[in-house]
Amino acid sequence: MGTLRRWLEADLRVLALFRIAFGVLLLANLYDRMGGGGLLAFYSNEGILPDHYALFLPLTQGYWSLLSGFSSPNEVRFAVTVVALLYALYTVGYRTRLMQVLVALCCISIDLRFLPVQHGGNVVMNVLVVWTVFLPLGARWSVDRLFATLRAHRESGAEALNARAWNAAAPTTHVGLAVLGATANFATIYFFNAFHKTGAPGWDDGSMVHWVLWQSRIATGLASVLRLHEPAFFSPLMTWGTLVIEWVLPFTILAPNRALRLFSWVSVQLLHGGIALLSTLGPFSYAMMIYATLLLSGRDLAWAGAQLARRTARREVRFDASNPAHLFAVRVLARLDGLERLTFAEARAGAPFAVKREGQGAFVEGVQACGQALRALPFGFLVSWPFAWPRLGDLARWTVRTLARLGAERDVARAEVAEGPLHRRARLAVQIAGPMLLFPIVVTQVMLDSWKIAEAAKPRGRPQAFDDFVRHTQMLQGWSMFAPGLPLEDARLVVDATLSDGSHLDPLTGAAPDFEPGNQGPFFMDQQWCEFHARMPGWTPHWRNVRDFLMRTPRREGWPEGRTITALEVYSVTWKSPPFGQTQVSGWQRRKLFDDKL
Predict the structure, then answer these.
(1) What per-residue confidence (pLDDT) applies to 372?
(2) Where along the chain do its domains lie?
(3) What is the pTM assigned to this prediction?
C-alpha cells in the first residue's frame, strides 16, 4: 500500500509550484503566438486561415475553438486580452478550480484555431491542462489559500502572527488518480520517443544532432556558431546521450523513490535545457521542464527553502495593532512569509509601520519599510524593487495602502464558508471518475499513434467517444520527435512580389527575394512561422487564403498610397545540409507553388 500511495501522492506545495511555473509558460506562449504579426497572420480573418474557412473546411473532424467567434484583429485582441487575464488569475491562484477549467478551454482553443502549425510542444501543453484539471493546484501559494486562511484565522496581535496557526492543521499532500495519470503520461512521452528513435536513421550512427544544427528554421544563434566549429565527438555524444536518457527516464519517473525521481528532474532540466539552447521548438522544451516539477517531493522543496532562507536576512516588523490597515497588511505578510524570516512586534498606538533588518540598528519607515518587508519573502526581490525608486515608491506606497485599507474592510465583512457535503462528494467524484475515464483513452491512443506497433496489435472497436475526446482536446500521443525521418534538407518559402514601381519584394522578409536563403540562416523564426514555411506547400486547399494574405500586405503594413503588389509568385525553396566536416549548403531547388492568378 505504501508503494501505491507514493504513486498517487503529490505534495500540495509541488502542485502550487507547478501551477505558477505553468502559468508563466502559458502567458509567455500566448505572447509568442500573438506577437510578431502572429495575431493577424494566424488568428484573424485578415490572416492565412479566416474563421469561416476553419469552420467549413476544417483541418480535423470535430473542429471547435472559442476563438472562432472573433474575426477582426480588434476582436481577436479583445479575446487574447481575456485569455491573458485568465492565465494570470490561474498563475496567482484566484478561483483556481474554475480557472483550471477555463485555462484548459483557452489553451486548446488557441491550438485548434490554427491547427496547421501544431507542434509536439502544443500537444504537451494540452496533455498538461487536461490531466491537471483534476488536481488541487490552488491549495497552496495561492490567492485562494490566502483568503481562506485570513477568514479562518483572525489574528489580533503579534503573538498570534508569530505562532502561524494556519500552517499547523492544514493538509500537506493530495492523493488521487490524476497524479499517477499525469506522471505515467510523462513517462510515456520518453518511452515512445526512445522506442521510435532506436534504430532510426541518424540515431543509429549518432549523426542526428549534426543534421538538426543545420535546420536553419529552428536553429538558435548558438547552434549557428557551433555548426561551423563542430567537434567530431559532439553529435555522437549528444545523439546517443539523448537516447540513453530517454530510455532511462520512463523507469526513474515511475519509480516510487525520491532519489530516482529527483534524478529524473535533474535529467529533464539538463536534456531540455540543452535542446532549448540549440533549437526553437516552441513551448516543447519548457513544457517538459515544467512537467518534471510534478516529480518533486515536499522534502525537495523543504531543502530548497532552507537554502534560500540561509541567504535571506531576518527582519522585525513593528505595526500598530489598533490600525486595521496595519493589521491586515501584517496578516498578509505573515502568510506570504514561507521562509519564516519575519518576526512581528506591536508598537504604540499611532506609530508608523516600521521594519528593521537583522544586524542593523535602526528601523526604517514608510516606503522603505514596505520594500524591506517584501525582500524577506521568497523571491521578494522581484516585487520589492519599486520601493527603492522615489516616484515608483510613491505609487507603490499608495497601492499598498489602498489594498490594505480595502482588504481590512472586506476582511471584517466576510466569513469563512465551509464546503458542504454535497459539494465535497461532487468534487471527489470528479477527481476519481475523470482520471479513470482518461486512462483507457490515453492508453489506446498511445497504441494507435505509434507507427512502430504492428497494426494487428492495435486496439479495434474503440468507442467513438474516445476518438471524439482526443480530437476535441488534441491529447495526441504520437511521441516521435525527429524520427523516423532524417532531416537532410531544409526549406523556406520565398515570395517574388512585383510592385507597382516594377521592383521585386518578398513580403515575408521585407527584402528582395532570396532564392538561396540557406546561406543566411538561421532565420530566428518563432514556432508558428517555422511550421508555416515547412508545411504550407501541403496546404493546397488553403493556398488561396495565403495568396490573399500576401496581397493585403500594403494595407496591413501601411504602405504609401499608390505602392501596391501587382503580381506575385510563391516558391518552396529547398537545399541540402552539409555533411560533417563541411559548412556549405548545396543542392538548391525551387518549386513554384502558385501565383496571384490562383
Answers:
(1) 85
(2) 2-135+176-299+422-473, 312-413, 489-595
(3) 0.92
